[in-house]
UniProtKB/TrEMBL annotation:
Gene3D superfamilies, sorted: Heterotetrameric sarcosine oxidase, Probable tRNA modification gtpase trme, domain 1
Superkingdom of this protein's organism: Bacteria
EC numbers for this chain: 1.5.3.1
One MF term in the entry's GO annotations: sarcosine oxidase activity
Protein name: Sarcosine oxidase subunit gamma
UniProt KW keywords: Oxidoreductase
EC class name: oxidoreductase
Amino acid sequence: MNAMSPLAAGVTITELAPTVRIALRLADISTAPGLALPVKVGERSAEGGRTVLCLGPDEWLIEAPEAGRDALFAALGAISVPHSAVEVSDREITLELEGPAVLTLLASGCPRDLARMPTGSGARTVFDSAQVVVTREAEDRFHLTIWRSFAPHVRAILDLATRELAAGL
């Protein structure tokens, strides 16, 4: 984990520890016992450290701690119908953004109205030109999951925006 100090703009940005991430495509969720897949796009379920975010009508992003890897792969192995389950753990990093100015900071690069996003939900969107997955963890805390190759660009935009916020621009 890489932590950045609290910024004058009132937001702390922390790179979270890696997790096991699976991009799952499946037409019939009743064939996925033990996965607790939410059905509404943007809805997220959480159980035993594992979270599942519904990104589309047949698409989910599953995250689990490394200790839950075997159980997750066992659940995926129990699916008996055609599906796609691709491990994307090394492809992405997650930043935690927390503080009273977090919505203003995120608005610097995200066109989505995140103030309307309910706590516990998430969505695929863009930050500047990079595709991201954003989840609202609390009223003033979000997770921003970014492809590793886009992370330097997103971090540069966040750094610029925090400096502007701190300067009162």
